[in-house]
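We modelled the chain as a single entity of 191 amino acids. Its sequence is:
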Amino acid sequence: MFRRFVLFINKITGWKTDDNIPPEIKRCIIIAAPHTSNWDFWYMIASFSIYRLRIRYTIKKEWMQFPFSLITKPLGGIAIDRSPKQANAQRISHTEAMIKLFTEQDELIVVVTPEGTRSRREHWHTGFYHIAKNAGVPICLGYVDYAKKIAGIGKTIYPTEMQKDMKEIMSFYQSMHAKFPEKFSVDIDYV
């Protein structure tokens, strides 16, 4: 039902969904960029409903408890528990927790926003890269291009060498048109 609604809205607004869906998408990290507006979330949800894929995003375990779970769970939230399993042990990093999620599940599509904010950020968080490389999953480059009115997945990267791969990722996103262009920047370290 929601998929039909999205297709109808896309038709009357002139938006399209990129049909470049790689077969390995059942297990991957998807970058969501540019991320300059709350509308980006709508286009992401819309395009993935058209793809018929269940996307997930990570959130602190406290946000997956009632009453918040009434919203976070249906929208694809997946709890991250970084607390130590034994007394006197250190907390694991967010990256380690996400790698663990991939080792525990056969199918997992996690969306991340490496910009980390809807404000301009010239240095992206690179945890997504380390997660993908250590979990052995590809990185799909999800995007929303407001000038072309298209959203979806544009390219797939298989992590090999960080410097080279990050340059390829930044090259892809340099041509994207954010809703608020002044709030978007690729990572200047890899341009």
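As a brief sanity check on the tokenised model: Residues 135 and 164 are 19 Å apart (CA to CA). The beta strands are 16-17, 27-33, 57-60, 77-80, 108-112, 139-145, 150-157.
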